[in-house]
Structures are given as C-alpha cells and as structure tokens.
Design goal:
Oligomer: heterodimer
Strand content of chain B: under 5%
Radius of gyration of chain B: 17 Å
Mean pLDDT of chain A: 79
Distance between the termini of chain A: 116 Å
Helix content of chain A: over 70%
Shape of chain B: globular
Distance between the termini of chain B: 31 Å
Chain lengths: 146, 188
C-alpha cells in the first residue's frame, strides 16, 4: 500500500478497527515512512482534543415533555383526520341526506298540491258545469278562471 | 456511552412491545438511550435546545414507527439511523439561516458545563475551538467521527447506520480527524 492508502487506514489503526493482516501491513509501512508516522502522531493528538467536549446532561423533564409531545401529536393527528376526512365526509353525507329529504318532501308537497289542484279543477269544472247548468244566466262569471 | 444493561436481545424485546403500544417498554428504551442520543445530537448540531428538541422528535418517531423495526439490524442501529436522519434534516433546515454557533465559537444555547469544567479561559477557548472545528466538518465526516469517538461504535456499526461501506467509514473518519487537526493547528 502507498502512503495515501495507509493514511486512510490510520484512523482505523488508532481505533483498533483493522484486521490483524491489515494492521501488520500498516505497522510495516510505519517502520519505514516518517511522514505517515508524523500523520499518526497528529491523529492521536486530535483524539485528546476531542475529549475536551464533555457530555451534557439531559434537559429536565425529558420524559414528561416527550409524553406530552406524543399526546399532542396524537391529538393533532386526530383533529387533522377529522378536519381532512371526517368533516368533509360528514358534511357531504348531511348534504346528501338533506337533498334526499328535500326531494321526498318536495314529492310529498308537490304530490299533495297536484292532487288538490286536480281536485279544485275538478270542483271548478263541476261548479262550472253546475253553473252552466244551474246559474242564473251569469254562469260565465263563475267559470271565468279568475 | 452505552448502558451496561443494554443488550440487542433486550432492546429487540422492548421494541416489539413498543410496537404493540406498550408505554412501559417505551419508557425503558427512552431511559436507556436518551443520554447518548442527546449527546450525539448536541455534538452534531452544537446547540443544546435544538439537540433536546431533535432528541424528542427522534423518540416520537420511535414510538410511532416501532412497528417498522423488523430486527434485521440491532435496535440501536435502527435508532441511530433515525438520529442521523433527524440531524441531517435539521442541518438542511438550518442552511437557510445562519448557524447559531457564534463567531468566537461560544454557543449561547449551550449549557455551561464545558466552561465550568474548564480550569481557565484558555482551556475554555480551546474547548470552544474544538466545538467550532467539529461543527465546520462536512456532515458525513462529522457524523462518522461522533459515532466513532464519542459513541464508541465500531466502523461496521457506523457503516450500517450511515448506509455505506466500512472502507468509506475509514476514509470519512480519517478525513474528519485530519480536517480537525488542520483547523486546530491554525489556532496554535
């Protein structure tokens, strides 16, 4: 392996991640290459610099806040579902029912009015007939359709 | 920082229970991983409040998506894929506005532990410089380095988490450390 390839392995070498064969290869190279040895020393120095960043503590009430967040999310998802699906679907169903009920009502009312019109026409016809038959000469007033 | 009680089998069992809606199992997983998750995220984003928020989001995803965990990898690997994805998403959102890490490397949102522990100002400045140098690394290098150095993950695990090869991880971590070295050398 040449220097660039060896250097790519140096971090794994420091971290003990190399197979015994590859480690032996890197060891042999380091014995003869001062430049790669210098890189190795610098990498080891970086390790100790990284150790300066100590752990932070978990923020207080992490679990309580998490439970709250999950509950809020569930609620908003339910609300979202209601708003996006249930509400429009419900509105559509109500409108459909209203339309059907309206149609039924219209049919009933129209049917009733039709029959009463028929009945009144029949009555008028009858009256007219009567008038025509029985009226004292002014039967045309009665049947004039006013 | 791994919990000594944690084991892949135990985690798998807990995750299966979480998928069934078992809140007690979820609480156990949260307690087991919250410290390492929040520290990984904090080292990546450099902001304490943001790290807390992202960590919360990570566990919300765990709760909602536990049913998708099939046990093909360890739970820990699956969890850290979520962590990495959330970190990258945060990064993408933040690219639209300036980073919160100020010009002198002091993060106003960070808790003061680092500064309290540091013996003197020079040490504190050096710590801030390391934090800033870390935050300036390319995303994948930074993630690989954090998982390796602080989480003590093997290169194989990191490759699984990041969806790449062990060779790529070797290269990412080497370049990350080399990049840090040159950034920190310029401060000496």
């Amino acid at each position: 392996m040449d220097c660039p390839n060896i250097r790519n392995k140096l971090s794994a070498y420091v971290d003990g991640e190399l197979s015994p064969e590859t480690k032996a290869l890197v060891d042999r190279h380091l014995e003869t290459c001062a430049d790669c040895r210098a890189v190795l020393v610098r990498l080891e120095a970086v390790e100790s610099e990284l150790d300066r960043l100590v752990d932070v503590e978990v923020k207080p009430y992490f679990e309580t806040r998490l439970r709250q967040r999950i509950a809020d999310r569930r609620r908003s998802r339910a609300t979202g579902w209601f708003r996006l699906v249930a509400l429009p679907a419900g509105t559509a169903v109500v409108m459909l029912l209203a339309a059907v009920a309206g149609a039924q009502l219209g049919r009933v009312l129209y049917g009733r009015r039709s029959s009463s019109t028929y009945q009144s026409t029949a009555a008028v016809s009858q009256t007219s007939t009567l008038d025509l038959l029985d009226g004292p000469g002014g039967s045309f007033y009665v049947t004039g359709g006013q | 920082m791994t919990n000594p009680e944690a084991s892949p089998e135990r985690d798998l069992n807990l995750a299966v229970r979480v998928a069934r809606g078992d809140e007690a199992a979820f609480d156990e997983l949260v307690r087991e991983y919250q410290h390492s998750v929040i520290n990984t995220i904090h080292r990546y984003v450099g902001e304490y409040d943001a790290a807390d928020d992202i960590a919360q989001e990570v566990f919300v995803i765990v709760w909602n998506k536990a049913g998708m965990f099939r046990g093909k990898s360890t739970f820990s690997t699956w969890l850290y894929r979520i962590v990495v994805n959330q970190c990258l998403q945060f990064r993408r959102r933040r690219q639209r506005r300036p980073a919160a890490v100020s010009i002198d490397g002091f993060d106003p949102d960070s808790p003061p532990e680092a500064l309290q522990i540091a013996e003197d100002r020079e040490q504190a400045e050096r710590t801030a410089a390391v934090r800033r140098a870390l935050s300036e690394l390319p995303d994948r290098q930074r993630i690989a380095l954090i998982l390796s150095h602080y989480e003590e993950r093997s290169y194989r695990e990191i490759a699984d988490i990041m969806g790449t090869s062990v060779g790529s991880v070797e290269s990412l971590i080497f370049r990350a450390k080399d990049g840090l070295r040159s950034k920190l050398a310029s401060l000496k």
